Amino acid sequence: MYIFIAGLLINSVLFSTNIYPKLLTDFLSNEQVISYQACLFQIFVFYSLSGSEFLLLAAMSYDRYVSICKPLQYAIIMRKRTVFILLGLAWIVPFSHLVVPLVVFANLELCSFTLKGIFCNNSLHFLFCAGSKALLTFGLVIMFNNVILPILFIIFTYVKILIVVHKSCREVRRKAAQTCLPHLLVLINYSCLMIYDIIIIRLESNFSKTARFIMTLQIIMC
Fold first, then answer.
1. What is the dihedral of CA 133, 136, 137, 142, to 10 degrees?
2. Cα–Cα nearest to 209, from 86, 104, 123
3. Fewest C-beta atoms under 10 Å: which of 62, 133, 160, 191?
4. pLDDT tens readout for residues 4-35
5. Of the given ranges (54-68, 136-150, 189-203), which has the lowest mean pLDDT?
6. How many angstroms separate the CA atoms of 23 and 32, rounded?
């Protein structure tokens, strides 16, 4: 459990390093400018870490499931080797998914150079001269593998946990609530913000600049 929390903390440090230095520079500058290569790198790191966040939360839910539903087998199932494999996959899988679109983006022609938002994200799609259906399809595959599947797995494990906890004594319920409730709150909050980033920006909704700015700040802060 603590190793997964450490993984989330490392994610936070890398995420902050990717976003905050450039963000602070923009706030202190009269002009907000970023090179195309730096923008692509920022997108790569941002969405890779976002995907790993969901996978780490899924790994944590599995850890909680084994701890509560199979306590006598916990030491056997959740060995250090297993934990480190899950931790490694949580980073490797999203990073490997993002390599292909990054290479494609680097070779696409830009027709606009004004990006909506305070950092590089999905809105980059609207700067290209021509869209790519294959790239859009691959984006959906990335979202399914890195976001939807982990969420479905978390829901499955928590349904199992709720069934076991419902049949247990009050002390077990209290401990389960203490460990699982914060995890669920983080998942719900982060999922809502990522849904905004993935869907609203892709659809180029007519959100006001203020609302868009506040939601983007919440994603960064979360």
1. 160
2. 123
3. 133
4. 677 777 777 887 787 788 878 877 877 778 88
5. 189-203
6. 9
